Amino acid sequence: MELSAYRDASAFAALQAEWNGLLKRAPIDCIFYTWEWQKTWWQAYQPGELLILTCRHQGELLGIAPLFISDNEGGRTAQIIGCVDVTDYLDCIVDEAALEPVFNAFAEYLAAQRPDCPRLDFCNIPAASPTRRILPDMLQRHGFSVSVEQQEVCPIIELPRDWKGYMSLLDKKQRHEVRRKLRRAQGYGHPVDWYIVNGSDNLDEEIAQFLRLMASSDPHKALFLQDEGNQRFFRAIVPLLQERDWLQLNFLKVGQDRAAAYINFVYDNRVMVYNSGLDHQAYSELSPGIVLLAYNIRHAIEQGYRQFDFLRGDEPYKYRMGGRDSAVMNIRAE
């Protein structure tokens, strides 16, 4: 196993042609692990020293550990690129046929670096990922003390074949509420409709409208958008994902007014609800956020997607709409 360590951003250009191909051979293929996401995040934030590890066997790329090192309260710490606020799942990218030898090579290298970087803090690891099981064992073999704890949850709907099947997932009260809200929207005094942004729309204008609704929906989101790095990342990643056909930016319109919005990612046969926006002062009696969410779920079913993933956070509405918990883990070692 040949291990290489890249310590500057030239790594992204060097690995671009192979990165997503390796991801297709990994146990979990996720938009947050793609070359596009990882490179854009790094360009926007650059919170420390880049350290991208690769493993090859006879020239074939078998593993990528996209890391960076930062100075934290507990000392210099290696983390996965993307951690933590704007990226919901993180992992190493490893060929499923070579998990143990690759993770062993990564652990051996990280152990050799302990005098310079004594701590590891790998957040947002899906509970279903083999990383949760294999990496801690390999790290312990190389002298690390390791803890693995549940960090958060991502409520997910396993989508049925039709809308009737979806409604049967909800309890009686919530079924009634969803039907009532949809009927109210259909009989509202102004036309209520929704649309997904496509190539014929002005994407810059649509992004601006989404950011307006996002800031209006929550003071914490408004504060988040005041951060220059967050703005830079958001404005870079949205058009890139639209170009790749992985973006589903959509709005609920009441008459000519945009009343609610979602940014979803459509990748690997699932929809991931990344963020939302809502004008609480307009059309509140219509429940525009829930109406648009119901339209999103129905559209996902009609398209034959297998999952509707609400991503990190245990907000009650996710469970009312049928979400069931999937855990994300934190692996710490020193």
Topology:
Blueprint: E1 2-6, H1 10-24, H2 35-45, E2 49-57, E3 60-72, E4 75-80, E5 93-94, H3 99-112, E6 119-126, H4 131-141, E7 146-158, H5 163-167, H6 172-186, E8 192-196, H7 203-217, H8 219-225, H9 228-243, E9 247-254, E10 257-267, E11 270-278, H10 288-302, E12 307-309, H11 316-320, E13 324-333
Word description of this protein:
By secondary structure, the chain is of the alpha+beta class. The chain folds into 2 domains: 2-152, Aminopeptidase, CATH 3.40.630; 160-305, Gcn5-related N-acetyltransferase (GNAT) (Aminopeptidase, 3-Layer(aba) Sandwich), CATH 3.40.630. The chain has 11 helices and 13 strands. The chain has helices at 10-24, 35-45, 99-112, 131-141, 163-167, 172-186, 203-217, 219-225, 228-243, 288-302, 316-320; strands spanning 2-6, 49-57, 60-72, 75-80, 93-94, 119-126, 146-158, 192-196, 247-254, 257-267, 270-278, 307-309, 324-333. Strands 1, 2, 3, 4, 5, 6, 7, 8, 9, 10, 11, 12 and 13 form a 13-stranded mixed β-sheet that branches. A hairpin with a 2-residue loop joins strand 9 and strand 10. The mean pLDDT is 96.
